[in-house]
Structure formats: structure tokens, C-alpha cells
Amino acid sequence: MFQPITYPSFFNKKLFILLFPLLLNIGQLIGQNNIKNCFTSTTNFNPALQEELEIFTKNYINNPNQSAISRGKITIPVVVHIVTQESEVEILDEQVHTQITALNRDYNLENDNLDRIHPAFQDRIGTVGFNFCLATIAPDGSPTTGITRRTTSDRNIFSPGNLWLYDTNEGGQTAWDTNKYLNIWVTKTDLFAGYATKPFQNPPEQDGVVISPRFFGMGGLATPPFHLGRTVVHEVGHYFNLSHLFDDGCEGNDFVADTPTQNSQYNGCPNIDESSCGSRDITANFMNNSEGECLAMFTRGQAMRMQAALIRARNGLINNNGCEPNLPTVLGDEIKVYPNPASYYFIIEVGNSTLEQIPYFIYNSKGAKVAEGLVTPNSTQHFPTYRNGIYFIQFLNRSEEPVVKKVVINY
After folding, report:
1. pLDDT tens-place string over residues 375-391
2. Where are the beta strands (DSSP E) in 135-266?
3. Which of 145, 234, 370, 382 is deepest in the core (most CB within 10 A)?
């Protein structure tokens, strides 16, 4: 039988009704403050390849002449999948762009807070040399902004054991080819700010970074003190095979020679003189969990470890042209030159190209340029008669080889 709810004699129902919203807000604040900065997974999808990567990394670090830095910046194509619940505020493109800016700032030593680094570590500061960009070309070859958007059910809060986020059919977003793109999912997370997979740690379709909107980018929904994009900087460090400095305490090993062992993580904004395990700690290292403004560096060893991971485990990112400028082109069969041979004049006709104007250059048979200009698609252009001979008209095609047409003048 249904039993009515009874309250203790000291319980004031009216007072409870008045205080309930406040109690709810306090609970939410407590939950936010208890969010772990970074979830660490211990899964090993392919231990053999992980072991092979470690051998390669050691050899790479011991042979600094092959450093990726010597080859200049390497471009990493990024796709950001925004998966929001129906009740959430929209994440604007601007917030996405600021996160790319933050990645490029910190992976290329362009940050302005180097004073957060203890003088003892100044000679260990490393430049990774990675350049991140939003993809301009999708896997099917179509143009893209590098941003996808999905709205999903309120019940879908991401946790590493719940794989709906990686499946479009389940309300998430299926990854773009993870061999060719760094996939970043921005969505509501459960008790942690961010999560990333190391090389060969998860199946390919689950490879990438997951981040809460409050820890993503600079401005927008990003919440101080994690509003400088450095939670993603940290997670991308994991993606390129870095570990926390504090994992397993003084007995731990992050496999980087120039990072001292650290007993535990630092939150907030720690003093730069902190020490543990018998040595000074690099509190400003990006692989700590400190507040954004207090993180400032990777070490040289960490930089080389990430370079090794890119070259060996994530080399598909290097070979992908997903960040090439998505320039409009014109096809050869869209351009007609007639009559040919010509006598008193000839005409250039251009069909339906996506270019607003197409530059052309006219050369004689000796290779000398005799004219240049612009022709507009869906138009014809008349040219006066040149001297008898053979002429070549070159149309600039931007990202492709130029289109060349031959015309014979004979009168």
C-alpha cells in the first residue's frame, strides 16, 4: 500500500522549499570543484605497437640530428566535433578558433608567461614545433570549416566507458579518419575536464581528445581559471604520448629524462619553489593540472617525445593535406578558345567556374609574354588579332596545374 511521506517533527517544509534551489546550486558548485582535470585511461589496445613506439622514441631522442624541429613546423589537421545537449548554450565557432590559437601559442613557445618557470628550468624549455589548423578538406574531398555539430539527448553525458560519443547513429559524431585528423570532441563530461588517448591505446575510431566546453578555448563558455585553452594543450600532450609528471608518485616514470619525479599533482596556482621526491618540481609544466595562467612550458625531452610519436605512430597527420587552402579551381574543359585557327580575332569563353575571375597570360611560341589579364566565368572575351603564329594561353588554376590552351593565328 502507498505510504504518505512523513517528515521529522523538526522539519520545516516551507523552509525546505525556499532553500532547495540554493542547496541545488551549492551541490552543483561542489560537483564542479570536484571535477578532475584529466581522466587517465589504462587501456592498451595494441601493446606490441606501444612497445615498438617506446623503442623508436628512445632512438629518436638519442639521435637529436633527426629532430623534427630542423625540418620546420609540421601542420596537424584538426577537426572539432561539437556535440551539445538540447538545453546547452551554443558553442560558437569563435571559441573553436581560440583553442587552435592556444595550441599554436604553447606548442611553439609563443606564450608570454615564461616568468612562471623557475630559473632552474629555463634551460630545459622546449619548442615542439607543431602547427595546428582546422581542416579545410573533409575526408571525402569536400570543403569544410573543420567543425561539425550535433545535438543529442540530455541523458548523454560522456564517460570513457560509454561509447555513444563516437557513433553518429547513437547521437554522437563518428570520427573522421583518425590516421589523418586529430579529432577533438567537445561535449558534456562526467567528473573530469578532459580525456585523451595515447597512441595505440584505444581502437582507431575512439582515438582523439574529449573536452568539456568549460575547459575548451579562450572566452565563450570557457570558465576561469581554465579559460586559456591549456586543458586541451595538456590533453594533446597525452595524444602525442606524454604522461603526467605525477603518475605513481616518486616511484613513477614519465619516460622523459629532463622532468624530475613528482610526488603528486598540483592544482590551483602553486609556488614555483615547490619540491618533492628530493628535488624541485616543474610546477609550470603543461603536464601538471595547475590553473591555466600558471602553466608555461614543455621540456626539450617532452618535445622530442611528442615529435617521435608524430613521426612513428601518427605519421598520417603529416601526410594529410587536410589543411591545404581550399582554393577554387577551373577545369580545362570549362575554357574554350575559338575560332582556332583564328584570323581577325579569337574569343576566350569560360563556363561555370567557382572562381570570380581567372588570371590569364598569353605567350608567343618563343615563350615571351605578350598579354595578361582577367577573364570572368560565364562570359566571353574578344581579343584583337596578333601576328601570325602559335600562341599559348595559360590560365592560373591556383591549387592545380595551370590550364594551357593553344591558338593558331593565320590570316
Report:
1. 887 777 788 777 888 88
2. 147-152, 182-186, 192-196, 209-211
3. 234
pLDDT tens per residue across span 268-279: 999 999 999 999
Alpha helices in 119-269 (DSSP H): 230-239
DSSP summary character for residue 29: H
pLDDT given for residue 160 in this prediction: 82
- Mention every residue, 6+ apart, whose C-beta is less than 8 A from residue 33: none
**What are 160's three cell numbers?**
570513457
Ramachandran class of 278: left when φ > 0, alpha when ψ lies in -120 to 50, beta otherwise: left
Confidence of residue 25 (pLDDT cuts 50, 70, 90): very low
**Other beta carbons less than 10 A from residue 334's beta carbon:** 17
The Cβ-side half-sphere exposure at 164, using a 13 Å CA radius, reads 19
- CB-CB contact of 377 with 305 (8 Å): no
Q: Cis link prior to 225 (omega < 30° from 0)?
A: yes
Residue 270 · residue 293 · CB < 8 Å: no
Residues marked as catalytic: 235
From the list 326, 342, 354, the residue with the least C-alpha distance to 362 is: 342
**Per-residue confidence band for 57, with pLDDT thresholds at 50, 70 and 90:** very high
403 membership: H or E segment, kind and range: strand 403-409
β-strands 275-276, 279-280: how paired? antiparallel
Domains and CATH numbers, the chain: 36-319 (3.40.390.10), 332-409 (2.60.40.3080)
- 130-134 and 74-85: which strand pairing? parallel
42 burial type by CB count under 10 A (0-12 exposed, 13-18 middle, 19+ buried): exposed
Q: Is there a contact between 100 and 147 (Cβ–Cβ < 8 Å)?
A: no
C-alpha cell at 264: 603528486
Per-residue model confidence as pLDDT tens digits over 319-347:
787 787 655 566 677 888 888 888 878 88
